[in-house]
Design brief:
121 residues, mainly alpha
């Protein structure tokens, strides 16, 4: 991999780390896989500075999870996508997600031999 490719690889690794870290954090308090997946997607969208729709597009598991969250909200009064988004965007939750993602990235960069490489961190 050339040095030019590192920034894009790092951006993708960071987005994936945000997604996974948000899901792990949410799974500590939620027992709905659909809600956990949507929270991960919300965090990834925030990190990428894009819409949730952009993150969900083409990812069957996320399309299915969004539908399940909407059904759960309509029939059982569970949290909707807007309330999950608001939760992720609270300062305390976002800080926890970022901290987890930072640790994940350090481990992944180390495993990939990227730690300390110019443009990787």
């Amino acid at each position: 991999m050339s040095e030019r490719e590192y920034p894009e690889v790092v951006r993708e690794m960071a987005a994936e780390a945000m997604y996974r870290s948000a899901m792990e954090f949410a799974a500590e308090t939620l027992d709905s896989a659909a809600h956990v997946l949507v929270i991960g997607a919300v965090a990834e969208a925030r990190h990428r500075d894009t819409s949730l729709d952009e993150v969900v597009m083409g990812r069957v598991e996320l399309v299915t999870a969004l539908g399940e969250v909407q059904r759960c909200h309509a029939y059982m009064g569970g949290p909707d996508v807007d309330s999950l988004t608001a939760w992720v965007n609270t300062e305390a939750v976002w800080a926890r997600i970022q901290a987890r993602a930072g640790n994940v990235l350090l481990m992944r960069w180390s495993e990939a031999g990227m730690y300390g490489v110019k443009g990787a961190a």
